[in-house]
Amino acid sequence: MWQQGSSAHPAVADSCRYSARFLDPYGGEQRMPWGEAARVVPLEECGPVRPFPLRSGRRFAPGWWWSATTGRLVHYGSGVMRTQVMLLDRDPSVMAMACRPVELSWRGSDGTEVSHAPHLMARFGDGCAKNIAAGLRRNARDARRPLALLGLG
């Protein structure tokens, strides 16, 4: 288990346990260990690995945002994600962004496969990248959570 003061976070130290699924530039599905994918795949150039469902009765539907940063459309799945894309687009340290470019999977403690596709990925000017989850619980106390995930709240 990862200890305070150790040199690596568990996802980095044990990256072979995590598998990455992403779409290549031709739309073909690719899989490789997460540690390798994080180093060699330009995830900001990958398309979404999962579509966003269109649910009737909701006031907000998935859409596209024209990004001045990337010079292309960035997909979003909710109002929260659209706000995050808008904020990332205004941040001068952001060089690129993508929506759901990778799905991470691993084996849970009971042996079943668990997967998660972070909602957004941003690449910064210093070369580092961050996966951002846009999840928001439905109570007022968590209204600032998307800003906190971006480091703005």
Layout of strands and helices, then pairs:
Elements: H1 10-13, E1 19-23, E2 29-33, H2 34-40, E3 63-67, E4 72-76, H3 79-90, E5 94-99, E6 103-107, E7 113-116, E8 120-124, E9 129-132, H4 145-149
Antiparallel strand pairs: 1-2, 1-6, 3-4, 5-8, 6-7, 8-9
Describe this structure in words.
The protein starts with 9 loop residues before the first helix and ends with a helix. The strands form three sheets. The chain has a four-stranded antiparallel β-sheet with strand order 2-1-6-7. A three-stranded antiparallel β-sheet has the order 5-8-9, with helices on one face. It is globular. Helix content is 18%, strand content 29%. The N terminus and C terminus are likely disordered. It is α+β, with helices and mostly antiparallel strands and 153 residues long. β6 and β7 form a beta hairpin.
Short description:
This protein is of the alpha+beta class and 153 residues long.
**Helix-residue proportion:** 10-25%
For the biggest β-sheet, the strand order reads 2-1-6-7
Return residue spans where pLDDT drops below 50 for at least 5 consecutive residues: 1-13, 136-153
Structural class: alpha+beta
Shape: globular
Order of helices and strands: HEEHEEHEEEEEH
Q: Keywords for this structure?
A:
single chain; 153 residues; alpha+beta; four-stranded antiparallel beta sheet; three-stranded antiparallel beta sheet; 4 helices; 18% helix; 29% strand; globular; disordered N terminus; disordered C terminus
